[in-house]
Amino acid sequence: MSETELLLSVRNMEKHFPVTKGLLKRQVGAVKAVDGISFDVFKGETLGLVGESGCGKSTTGRLVTRLLEPTAGKVVFEGQDITHMSQGRLRPLRRDMQMIFQDPYSSLNPRHTVGAIVGAPFRIQGVKTEHGVKKAVQDILELVGLNPEHYNRYPHEFSGGQRQRIGIARTLALKPKLIIADEPVSALDVSIQAQVVNLLEDLQNELDLTYVVIAHDLSVVRHISDRVAVMYLGKIVEVADRKRLYNSPMHPYTNALLSAVPVPDPKVRKERERIRLAGDVPSPLNPPPACRFHTRCWKAQEICRTVEPPLEELASGHQVACHFPENAPEVAKETPEAT
Amino acid sequence: MSFLDVKDLKIHFPTDDGLVKSVDGLSFGVERGKTLGIVGESGSGKSVTSLGVLGLHKGGRAKLSGEIWLDGEELISASAEHVRGLRGKKMAMIFQDPLSSMHPFYTVGHQIIEAYRIHHKVTKQVARKHAIDMLGRVGIPEPARRVDSYPHEFSGGMRQRAMIAMALSCDPELLIADEPTTALDVTVQAQILDLMVDLQREFNSALIIITHDLGVVAQVSDDILVMYGGKCVEYGSADDIFYRPEHPYTWGLLGSMPRLDREPTERLLPIKGSPPSLINVPPGCAFHPRCPYAERTDGKADTEVPDLAETEGGHLVRCHMSRTERRTLWETEIKPVLETQ
């Protein structure tokens, strides 16, 4: 895998949803769903985006694919700035950038056959296929492990796992370069989850795809990703390759998240030291100032309430936004003085 | 006899398309102070079981048979009124989705007070004090103020806490939690699981946790029951299920999960196919179309339903393969692959 070629690059991206009040729709505040995040996605890799509900991970996915308009910042895809590109100019680019949605029930039109659903991208993009659209669709259905003879069936005739495969087939129709998968397996049963995860990996190897996988399940993300970014309240708090992030996480929040995942081993519950985080994620309408995690962090000091920690590279390829990172290399950072 | 003893429970629903055997001959027991985890995929009948134990299928279209003994009392033959008197007081339930299981028009406090006053002859003031006390015990900050909040004013985790407070308000001796943490984030899930275990210890109640998450059951259960297609396929202590599982379905579940406590593997080992619909459960062993070892049973798999037989010290398995065959498979084929994860 060559991680040299940059495919997608996001800089200081923000998305604020205005909160209005009264007859005149006066703006009284904003939900800062995504509040200044930057990351890169390289060709052929899988970037996992994890976080709890409300952290802005799904909004990020929609901003990158321009299903939502960013409030500020920049999205560069294959060297082209697509942040404010018009829908007309964006359309040809949509071929290269596709999305897999979470819910295999609501993301497929119940009145269309599988053939129509998976064939739609060809028609919309006006793509000419050698042996006709039907043949192309049937090839893709076979690729994702569906029976090509089911071309004329409707979504309700399929199980949840099969529907998710239909969604994946539609995504793959035009051989995109980048696929944003928003919780691709969370609506599926455990045994089906594994099938879909394996399918995504096989397709990546076969078709040289690049994934951004958005998920809340840390075990699935570890399994599928090369690099992982952890989000908390609209910010990225830590980015590292998978091994580093899971073996020596630096941000206290990442630590807490990892220790909260229940492990399927009865012995472990007695032995494992768990970090219990108090309370819930604060509302993104009114996020805590400076470091947003300070209200739940056991290491928080005065500086965390006043100065926002920047996302800094503390080890090679390992970026953290924290004043008091754990597992940090000794020389990398001096302990900041609390003022 | 255990505190809760369910024997050969069957819950069938007649429908236009045929008889749906949601629960088909299930037996289990739970002692006071112990936790039973019921694991299964969607449509395995796990939630129907819990509603059946609480008597919430009575009077509906469901056909119930078998016996449910709670503290020496049989519930299936008991009158609906009698079961209603027990519900809330002697047994209570925590539902999966706290937002849709609470009434949006009434305050959280009102809903706790209502349940408490049905079972206790006390004044509103006393009941209110009790509600505040309960909310405080489940870790809701400023309970005296929050008691007057509506469910929508609570966050997901707080709502689930309020729901636990409601379920525990009459000190039930049996508590059933149906996917109590599925709707919650991991950090909140950890809080809620800890809370449930702490409260169980304090009240010495019997707890049944129903979930699809093997991680959650491993963390809280003493015994585990694995359901598939309305039947129990494996039943044993937590150690039996995680360290000496003998049913191919349990192996499949363990192989399907990516695990944080082991080095990541290249590939997961999924079960082929998908769970059966309960209206059309495969004949013979319900798992045989998905089972990689089905051909080892000389054609019995698709004609005969295997018995739930004891292999050792309370560990029950429903499989046609012989015990030695299963043991050998586990030791030589399954375990080595799972352990390298």
UniProtKB/TrEMBL annotation, chain B:
Family: Belongs to the ABC transporter superfamily.
One GO biological process term: peptide transport
NCBIfam families documented for this protein: oligo_HPY
Protein name: ABC transporter ATP-binding protein
Keywords: ATP-binding, Cell membrane, Membrane, Nucleotide-binding, Transport
Membrane topology: Peripheral membrane protein
Main location: membrane
InterPro entries (UniProt xref): AAA+_ATPase, ABC_Ni/Peptide_Import, ABC_transporter-like_ATP-bd, ABC_transporter-like_CS, Oligopep_ABC_C, P-loop_NTPase
Pfam families for the chain: ABC_tran (PF00005), oligo_HPY (PF08352)
ABC transporter domain residues: 4-254
Species of the source: Nonomuraea turkmeniaca
